[in-house]
Amino acid sequence: MTTLAWFHCFAGIAGDMALGSLLDAGADVEEVTSLVERVPVKGWKLELQPVLRAGLAATRAIVHADEDGVVRTYAHISGLIDEARLPQRVRDRAQAAFAALARAEGRLHRRPPGQVHFHEVGGIDAIVDVVGVCAAMEVLGVDDVRASPVATGSGMIRTAHGILPNPAPAVVELLRGAPTYGRAVTVELTTPTGAALLAATASSYGPMPAMTVSATGFGAGTRELDDLPNVTQVVLGTAAAAPEDEPGQPVVQLEVNVDDATGEVLAHTVSALLEAGAHDAWITPIVMKKGRPAYTVSVLADPALVEQLSRVLATETGSLGVRGRRLDRWPAARLAAEVEVEGVPIRVKVSAGRVKVEHDDAARAARRTGLPLRQVLARAEAAWHTRQPLDPA
Fold this sequence. Notes:
- The structure is a single chain.
- About 35% of the residues lie in helices and about 30% in strands.
- By secondary structure, it is an alpha+beta fold.
- The protein has three domains: about 5-240, no CATH class; about 250-330, Alpha-Beta Plaits (2-Layer Sandwich); about 335-385, no CATH class.
- The strands form six sheets. A five-stranded mixed sheet has the order 9-4-1-11-10.
- The model is unreliable at about 390-393 (pLDDT under 50).
């Protein structure tokens, strides 16, 4: 079964609010803290405070940090996360969040992402918030993250770059393609850290998905607001299977035909589309007018990301236009897990009657162990079956 986490961002989202909501929903604080402590950054302590926000009971996650005055670059933080030896899914989600921040800041300041200097988001508390959220998701077994439309504030805010409009430019950039709306509240409801976590982990945006609810939690913001509970809510549960006679998950299929792109360009395009949030991307050989050999590049996308992915598709292929059509899909429930072959961790996806080994992980294990790839694949499947046999149903 797929475990979902749906963030209800009616009062925005920040790193500490997301972390507080997951801990409030039942993530064990000691397990989360022990994972975050693997990051080689010292001088911090996580405190949880039970609070009320507009009468709602919530948890406030406070990171007490001995700030060292270091302005860290994206490359520095990425290295710290790699060095931490975190579980793969924790590492990947944390890396994706900081990569999204680096891309956004790079576009705003016209710098390569690797040279971006993080100010507030490079502090110890922000690192703990981001890695803590990813660790809490892992402790709760979250496979898929979704979110509501995201509320933002208005007016002006003070930042390390001076006085900026609210929402901050980085927030607007990070939420490109996501449904957002403004509230007449002169408070920074959504922060760059919160927006980056959504950009990195949310597979889609919309109302609460079909699910069997198992837990919910509220993460509190710093302030008490007059007319709004200053909290982020998370709802946890298992995905409900959609009957085939009911509408499935709405998606959009985008396509372009190209006859002047090399194989290297096409392969890079597929990678760029997947990195930009596509559900899937593929290439089909075709024959165009006058018998010219060509290719159709196709991408399956969440409707909220159509503009972003259309831009990637057109830019990377050089196409003068993009066509699309709306579809429904019924994704099968699956479990993401990890096994070991000769001490090398390998990710697997498990659905009813099938175990699918992640090829990149298996190839890495083959290189490290010297085993043939086919043996690594067989051993990884056997390791899962030995640990937890599949239900024949």
